[in-house]
Write a structure and sequence with these properties.
The chain is α+β, with helices and mostly antiparallel strands. The chain has eight helices and 19 strands. It is flat and about 85 Å long.
């Protein structure tokens, strides 16, 4: 089944074959969903016009009420027809990528040299299915022209998605790409699966951290015996956001209550408003009392949340399993620190300033490079 998300069309069961080139892959629109939407458009428009026939006999401007109804039906019809007619055929040979895409009733061909593609990008997307938000991990043959980007494969599993992206990078002899604040982080095919410490030792990843440098105001660093504790002092959600949410809700609630004349309704509305405000306040206070930490030892790295009850480790990974560390955006466009392993990417530091996260990234890379690999904690 074809899925549309983030401007991409993909199907978990269809992928570009990694055979001798040239190869091609075909993708059709979601015909079943298109037919359903087409029926909805017909029923919507017909039903409302039958009901609204009497309005046509009324003087102006009463008949104009039917115009928004007609526009909604047309929009449904247009989207349905596009889903039904959509076809995309991608052909990859040794030198050129050719895309034949049909939209509406004509097919457009576009071509680009394979050399113009910087590499294979692993991308995480979210889509909705059965009223649930789900994840998809795409392997993209990335291009500066979005229309020439090719979806090579897709997987609902993060580890499988990373494996697919690296396999395509080897097949195409292209770098495997990860999104960062500064563009793409590229790993050459021969460097895939190498631990971060080895890439630093080979000079392929460089840290600008200098021992003794002063951390940003949002970061605190404590050194212990074979342990570095990095505390991220800014919460994931800014306090002004909590205040804004509470203020808007309170104003709306009291405005509504002010127009209600029934005493019981006022009491019930006030109680609901009070409970919501208490919930927002509790969440804000809990965030203030929680500090996110990164615990660096000679053999592993842990992510933790520390409260008055003490640190609660959320994940621990061996240093030899870490392949990349990067600053990139999250689903909600917040900068965060992404620590990538073959088993998945671990994220921390949402809401922190980009410059602070870059400083922490350089510190961790430098610490991993000098950890000596292996050893106990």
């Amino acid at each position: 089944m074809t899925i549309s998300a983030g401007g991409y069309q993909f199907d978990f069961n269809k992928a570009v074959p990694m055979d001798a080139r040239p190869v091609n892959a075909r993708l059709r629109g979601n015909i079943a969903a298109g037919i359903l939407l087409l029926l909805i458009a017909i029923v919507w428009t017909g039903f409302n016009f039958v009901i609204g026939q009497s309005l046509l006999e009324e003087p102006m401007p009463m008949p104009l009420i039917l115009i928004p109804i007609l526009i909604v039906g047309i929009v449904f019809f247009v989207f349905a027809l596009r889903m039904i007619l959509y076809r995309r055929v991608v052909t990859i040979d040794n030198d050129v990528v050719t895309i034949d895409q049909r939209s509406w009733f004509r097919t457009k061909r576009r071509r680009a040299a394979l050399d113009t593609y910087p590499g294979v990008l692993r991308k995480k997307l979210y889509y909705s299915r059965n009223k649930q938000t789900r994840e998809a991990f795409l392997s993209l043959l990335a291009h500066g022209d979005r229309s020439m980007t090719v979806v090579l494969a897709a997987s609902p599993d993060e580890a499988k998605g990373r494996e697919q992206a690296e396999a395509y990078a080897r097949w195409l002899d292209k770098p495997a790409l990860e999104e960062t604040a500064d563009g793409y982080l590229a790993r050459d095919p021969e460097d895939l699966d190498k631990p971060l410490a080895q890439l630093v030792a080979e000079g392929k990843i460089v840290s600008s951290y200098r021992s003794g440098s002063t951390p940003p105001a949002e970061v605190k660093v404590d050194h212990g015996d074979d342990l570095i504790v990095v505390s991220l002092l800014k919460g994931a959600v800014a306090m002004w956001v909590w205040a804004l949410v509470a203020g808007i809700f309170a104003a709306s609630a009291f405005l509504i209550i002010g127009f209600v004349t029934d005493l019981e309704a006022r009491i019930a509305g006030g109680a609901v408003a009070f409970l919501v405000l208490v919930g927002v306040l509790y969440a804000a206070i809990r965030q203030m009392r929680t500090t996110r930490q990164i615990l660096l030892r000679r053999a592993n790295l842990s992510l933790a949340n520390t409260t008055k009850a003490g640190p609660q480790i959320t994940v621990t990974m061996a240093l030899d399993d870490i392949e990349t560390i990067r600053v990139a955006k999250t689903r909600y466009s917040s900068w965060a620190l992404h620590i990538d392993t073959d088993k998945g990417s671990h994220v921390t530091g949402e809401g922190m300033p980009r410059r602070a996260l870059t400083w922490v990234q350089d510190l961790i890379i430098a610490a991993i490079a000098t950890a000596g690999g292996g050893g106990g904690s």
